[in-house]
Amino acid sequence: MPLRTSLVLAADDSRRLASFYGNLLGCQPKEGFSASHWQLTWPGGGLLEIYEPSSTRPLPRQIGRLSLCLQQDCADDKPLAQLQAWIDSALAAGAILEQPPRLEAFGAEAWLLDPEGNRLLLLVHLYR
Q1: How far is CA 126 from the centre of its chain?
Q2: Which residue in 115, 123, 109 sits closest to 93, CA to CA?
Q3: For site-directed labelling of 58, which of 51, 77, 80, 98 has its Cα 20 to 30 A away?
Q4: List of residues 6+ apart from 126 with CB closer than 8 A
């Protein structure tokens, strides 16, 4: 039997968080196993699954070092401009900018919090 992979995020409002990531990933969330479970196609394969924990088994929010990282290749020689447009889209969908965008040797990056407070790294690669 083939192995499948997925990333799983617990959410207070799974529909809203699925819509947020659908916007950033450029895909349509699909209802999963129930109305409180959503699946999105993860670039490169696998799924991003977002669900609301059962009230009988709540999952508290926690701070950790694990983060989602969404990446784009630079469309031109202006990774900061491309990243800023992506950040603007995320902010309009409910994200919070945690650290401002910065230019690095590999491109441009910015740290955000998604609408549920999960850390999210947006990264635009600059290939030379």
Answers
A1: 20
A2: 115
A3: 98
A4: 74, 77, 79, 106, 107, 108
Q: What is the pLDDT along the chain (128 residues), one digit of tens a residue?
A: 676 778 889 899 999 999 999 999 999 999 998 899 999 998 888 899 999 887 777 667 777 777 899 999 998 889 999 999 999 999 999 999 999 999 988 899 999 999 999 999 999 998 76
CA distance 12 to 8: 13
Sign of CA dihedral 72, 77, 80, 81: negative
Q: How far is 91 from 123, CA to CA, in rounded Å?
A: 15
Handedness of CA 77, 121, 66, 41 (dihedral sign): negative
Helix (H) or strand (E) holding 84: helix 79-92
pTM (two decimals) = 0.82
The length of the chain is 128
